[in-house]
Amino acid sequence: MTRIVPPLRLGVNIDHVATVRNARGGSLPDPVRAAQLACASGADGITAHLREDRRHIRDADMRRLREVLLVPLNFEMAATDDMVALATELRPHACCLVPERREERTTEGGLDVIGGGIELAHKLEKLAKAGIRVSLFIAPDADQIARAADIGAAVIELHTGAWCDLLAERRNDEAALEFERLAHAAREGARLGLEIHAGHGLDYSTAETIAALPEVRELNIGHFLIGEAIFDGLEGAVRHMRVAMARGRAAGRPVAA
Asked: Which Pfam families match (predicted)?
């Protein structure tokens, strides 16, 4: 017996609208307006990464997003005391804990849940007690996934960046192996009772491919959509992404009941 594959949600990351704003200064383009337009175009939620150096999203952006959004806000953040304190004050729908280094251009690699030890578990507990769903952004590694379940994470977001990079470099055999790692990780995480998300480096084609994995419940996509918005508008980019995701979902395998 099989059951219907659940719907696949799209979270749109609006960080790089703020990047463009900050390059010149002032208030435009407004990332909150971009978030509202993305939602009107089919996004199910909004992701924003408040980095410790405030290179794109700023504290005021997070407060405004929390005030005006009618969809879930996913607060992406480093697992630091300052960020945990801010998150428990704002109380977004979800927090995604990510590794963060100031010199990196974007998030590199997954969070080391095993190495985070009891300190990471305590931060997760504080967020959960504030009514916030906690997601851990991790590589498709069985040991990391098991540890995420052990410390009480509700969600894991699988880092798809390595797979996307291999495809872009046309290292197709290696890319196929990496995709199998992602597929296995999704199955294993679901078996452990975790909700499975995925993100990083996804475009229309790769989003369509990973949408076929029935365990994956949400994709979080930012840089590509903001880049495509230059050519097609944000509304067109989000709508095109929804079509690609739906096509991939329809082609996916059912889940055994």
From this structure: PdxJ (PF03740)
Binding-site residue ranges for 3-amino-2-oxopropyl phosphate:
13, 24, 201, 222-223
Residue 115 has pLDDT above 70, yes or no: yes
> Is residue 173 one of the residues assigned to a domain?
yes
Relative to beta strand 155-159, strand 195-199 is: parallel
22-46 residue pLDDT tens: 999 999 999 999 999 999 999 999 9
E strand segments, the chain: 2-3, 9-13, 45-49, 73-78, 94-98, 133-138, 155-159, 195-199, 216-221, 255-256
- Residue ranges for the known binding site are 13, 15-16, 24, 51, 56, 106, 201, 222-223
| CA-derived radius of gyration, the chain | 17
Measured distance CA(254)–CA(176) in Å, rounded: 21
Active site residues: 49, 76, 200
**Residue numbers of the domain that contains 40:** 8-99+121-252
